[in-house]
């Protein structure tokens, strides 16, 4: 029978196992293209382990009998992703069905409360044969999967120190249950918002008519994204930038651009709103009118730049042109959103020359 002292000697093994499983889960989720809010891990300390044994009033015959020494928590944005990640876990690990639970499935139709999926797992037999996993073959880990809102509910309930329904004073029960219902409803609504967003995005990019968005007129993140990627006018700006000396055809640049792309789109929307442009068609006309000066404008930027290579993509060159249409540029805004001070001051200086 293992003592707490012996467990302490195994602690490093459990810590390594926790990190290994966490890295595996991160990799599996990334492979499926699922975006999550947070993946966190923890390994129980000796004190926590000792407390659990004391409360159970027994000494464990095996360290594997305690199923949550290693713990990984995946916090998603949407309930749909909880379901998708649950399927990943089921396919990649051995599931201890007896000790695993889906909290939402045990709630009755007229009940509200904590929802989360808890799996107790071991690595599967195939992975357990690999040299880098063989020492972890008999260890358990608990994997919790929940949405951001479910995590909020759990965190607040924990702070209030209510772990069981019967612990809650009657005067507070109704309010807590109503709040739980609101959390559940909000989760559903966010899921529906995401599905509607994806539907609109698909319709706009496939140039299908949609009742909710006029892709030729309404300016929003989806229609601007489509315009930047598909517009022939923006392609002409890209060609001017390339001819002036900007690096525009690098795969590396495309990857770098992805990281700031949404921010640049937001900047573009901000500028067009200041210019009182509220239709994609009007934005296209404005950019079309700037084609003739775009080569000189971009050349001036390159010739006055102190960097050996200046790169950009479709969104960046569109923003540069639009910046020349503003009477004044908000320096604090641009510096707060990732622009380097020297770059901003150069663009500010040159864009004034082409202001119209």
TrEMBL record:
Q: Which Pfam families match?
A: RelA_SpoT
Locate the RelA/SpoT domain: which residues? 41-168
Q: Which InterPro entries match?
A: NT_sf, RelA_SpoT
User: What is any one GO biological process for this UniProt entry?
Assistant: guanosine tetraphosphate metabolic process
Give the protein's recorded name: RelA/SpoT domain-containing protein
Q: What is the source species? A: Neotamlana laminarinivorans
């Amino acid at each position: 029978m293992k003592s707490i002292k012996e467990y302490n000697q195994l602690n490093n093994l459990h810590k390594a196992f926790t990190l290994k499983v966490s890295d595996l889960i991160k990799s599996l989720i990334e492979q499926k293209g699922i975006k999550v809010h947070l993946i966190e891990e923890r390994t129980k300390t000796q004190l926590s382990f000792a407390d659990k044994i004391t409360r159970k009033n027994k000494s464990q015959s095996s360290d594997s009998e305690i199923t949550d020494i290693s713990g990984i928590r995946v916090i998603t944005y949407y309930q749909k992703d909880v379901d998708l990640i649950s399927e990943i876990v089921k396919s990649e690990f051995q599931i201890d069905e007896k000790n695993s639970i889906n909290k939402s499935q045990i709630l009755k139709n007229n009940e509200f409360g904590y929802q989360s999926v808890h799996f107790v797992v071991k690595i599967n037999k195939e992975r357990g044969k690999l040299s880098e996993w063989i020492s972890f073959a008999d260890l358990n880990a608990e994997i919790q999967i929940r949405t951001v809102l479910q995590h909020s509910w759990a965190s607040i309930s924990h702070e209030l120190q209510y772990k069981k329904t019967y612990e809650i004073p009657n005067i507070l029960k109704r309010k807590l249950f109503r709040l739980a219902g609101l959390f559940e409803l909000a989760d559903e609504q966010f899921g529906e918002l995401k599905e509607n967003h994806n539907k609109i995005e698909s319709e706009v990019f496939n140039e299908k008519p949609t009742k909710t968005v006029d892709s030729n007129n309404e300016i929003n993140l989806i229609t601007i994204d489509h315009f930047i990627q598909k517009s022939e006018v923006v392609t002409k700006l890209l060609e001017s930038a390339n001819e002036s000396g900007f690096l525009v055809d690098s795969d590396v640049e495309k990857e770098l651009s992805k990281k700031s792309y949404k921010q640049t789109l937001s900047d573009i929307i901000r500028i067009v709103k200041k210019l009182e442009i509220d239709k994609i068609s009007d934005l296209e006309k404005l950019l079309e009118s700037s084609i003739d000066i775009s080569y000189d404008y971009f050349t001036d930027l390159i010739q006055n730049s102190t960097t050996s290579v200046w790169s950009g993509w479709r969104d960046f060159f569109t923003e540069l042109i639009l910046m020349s249409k503003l009477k004044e540029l908000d320096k604090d805004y641009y510096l707060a959103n990732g622009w380097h001070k020297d770059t901003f001051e150069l663009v500010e200086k040159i864009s004034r020359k082409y202001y119209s």
